[in-house]
Design a protein that fits this description.
Number of strands: 21
Largest sheet: 11 strands, mixed
Shape: globular
CATH superfamily of the largest domain: Dipeptide-binding Protein, Domain 1
Distance between the termini: 46 Å
Helix content: 25-40%
Number of helices: 17
CATH architecture of the largest domain: Alpha-Beta Complex
CATH class of the largest domain: Alpha Beta
Structural class: alpha+beta
């Protein structure tokens, strides 16, 4: 079975799993518990989520959105890479490349303590990266720490300095080495099964909050870490309240039973005009797409795939699923707009039913019947699939909609099959375009299309080592053009995430709204 390449590629699969989470039986309990505890306490922040992060999270193997939110609450990374000119340092004070870009030196903070009072040092950093690199641990970031089939070497220089040595130049290394949360060596040393360790249920981190209590299907409660190195959190307690039903969650926020909730575009209008709730829309760099399963004979022809691309009305699909262009914009590249070297100077396959029919005729194909897979209980994908079916019917293509259980679809995508010809998905990958290579290189670990183009493989290899910025830009622009021209991948939209939050909450900008985790540093939130 294939493994994901980055923490964001992990979301590529876990987006299916989140929706398949817990049973709805926890909903009434959660709402009742909210009422019992009360939510107007100035020392508690309750965030409604529609998945169960569990109590076995660890920095090596946890890759689902809600598990990662829990990780971000309890642990800290060296730094978060949000862009070439936007690096947020946490446990590290700096990360400096050598002139030849083969070594990176991290200077660490000297004022950090683990939740159990032990000092944080370079030993913890080296230990974490070594555990991430062990294949038997199944770490989500292992592949991004492998360069030209060789692992990065991580060495302690002194108690507060760590050196990373690459086997070859990789210009995306500054991002690849970041966003990894550090685990305590003194807790996990000698552990042979990190993924299933009982120690995961009582995590010891350096983050702003400590795990206090986990109730399966109901909630996860955290209490503030007064020794947090960036300053004690302003809110004493954080609760992730599990509410699987969207309508119940919406009502809970309207009644003040919870303080924050991510809402669907179709529900956003319920909060407009409500002075007690503020809507915060923000970019995650997420691309939603339709992709072809190239292990299916029905879509081997490039002309057939192009016919399908021209037969789709991207604007109609997006409005049907995201209500308004306020919440999503058409996407034409596989890179989000914030990615380095993004270009939309690619073939846009603008809606043209006549051209779609002409391409089918050119391919000698008639009465084409295809199967489109999607996550059955994902309301966005349900709407996308319905419009796609109607669009392609007008072009003479019959589409059978195959709504699947999230776990089943996840597993099916990771093996060669012909159960369906196309599928809907979405991903959050990163900033540097090299982080997207696993989606498109031959046998890439997130290449569930089974797409293969030797020129694309060659260009990704060139782009990784090219030091000249202008030349690197040209390489990645060419990759974007080739991938879209091959029509194995049809970008639909780049959508926003909508956070509905209690209007009393302050410090949101300081906390930072970021992909996956929601908040970059929850310690900055206050009433």
């Amino acid at each position: 079975m294939r493994k994901n390449v980055t923490i964001f590629a992990a979301l590529f699969l876990s987006m299916f799993l989140v929706l398949a989470g817990c049973s709805s039986k926890s909903t009434d309990k959660a709402s009742s518990k909210n009422k019992t505890e009360g939510t107007n306490k100035p020392d508690t922040f309750i965030y409604g989520i529609d998945g169960d992060p569990g109590n076995a999270v660890n920095v090596i193997t946890t890759g689902d959105r809600f598990g990662l939110m829990e990780i971000k609450t309890v642990y800290s990374p060296l730094y978060m890479y949000n862009g070439k000119d936007d690096i947020k340092y946490f446990l590290a004070e700096s990360m400096t490349p050598s002139d030849d870009f083969l070594t990176y030196t991290a200077k660490l903070r000297k004022d950090v303590k683990w939740h159990d009072g032990q000092p944080f040092t370079a030993d913890d950093v080296v230990f974490t990266y070594e555990q991430m690199l062990k294949e038997e641990n199944g770490g989500w970031a292992r592949s991004q720490l492998i360069f030209n089939n060789q692992p990065v070497k991580v060495e302690k220089v002194d108690d507060y300095t760590v050196k990373f040595t690459l086997p070859t130049v990789s210009m995306g290394a500054i991002e690849a080495l970041g966003n990894i949360f550090i685990m305590p060596k003194h807790v996990y040393e000698g552990e042979t099964n990190i993924a299933n360790s009982p120690k995961n249920a009582a995590p010891v981190g350096t983050g702003p909050y400590k795990l206090k209590e986990y109730k399966a299907g109901e909630s996860v409660t955290f209490e503030k870490n007064d020794d947090y190195f960036l300053g004690a959190p302003k809110i004493s307690k954080v609760v992730y309240r599990i509410i699987m039903d969207a309508n119940t969650a919406t009502m809970a926020l309207q009644k003040g039973e919870i303080n924050a909730l991510v809402v669907q575009p179709s529900d956003a209008s319920k909060f407009k005009g409500n002075s007690n709730v503020t809507l915060k829309e923000y970019e995650e760099g997420r691309i939603g797409y339709l992709a072809f399963n190239l292990s299916s004979n029905s879509v081997q022809s490039k002309d057939v795939r192009k016919a399908i691309a021209y037969g789709l009305n991207r604007d109609e699909i997006n409005i049907a699923s995201y209500v308004s262009t306020d919440y999503s914009k058409p996407a034409y590249s596989f890179l989000p707009k914030k990615a380095t070297y993004f270009t939309d100077d690619v073939e846009k396959h603008k809606f043209n039913t006549k051209k779609a029919k002409e391409l089918l005729a050119k391919a000698g194909v008639s009465d084409l019947k295809l199967k489109l897979a999607f996550t059955a209980n994902n309301p966005i994908q349900q709407k996308q699939a319905a419009v796609i079916q109607q669009n392609l019917k007008a072009a003479g293509i019959s589409v059978e909609l195959v709504g699947m259980d999230a776990t089943a679809l996840n597993q099916k995508m990771q093996s060669v099959h012909s159960d369906f010809d196309m599928y809907l998905g979405g991903y959050i990958m990163g900033i540097d375009p090299d982080t997207f290579n696993s989606l498109f290189v031959t046998n890439g670990e997130a290449n569930y299309m089974y797409y293969s183009n030797p020129k694309v493989d060659e260009l990704f290899n060139q782009g990784r080592v090219e030091k000249d910025d202008a030349k690197r830009k040209a390489i990645y622009e060419e990759i974007q053009k080739i991938v879209i021209d091959d029509a194995a991948f049809y970008p639909l939209m780049e959508n926003k995430r909508i956070l509905a939050i209690d209007s009393r909450i302050k410090g949101i900008d300081e906390a930072g709204l970021v992909p996956v985790y929601t908040f970059e540093d929850m310690s900055k939130l206050s009433y």
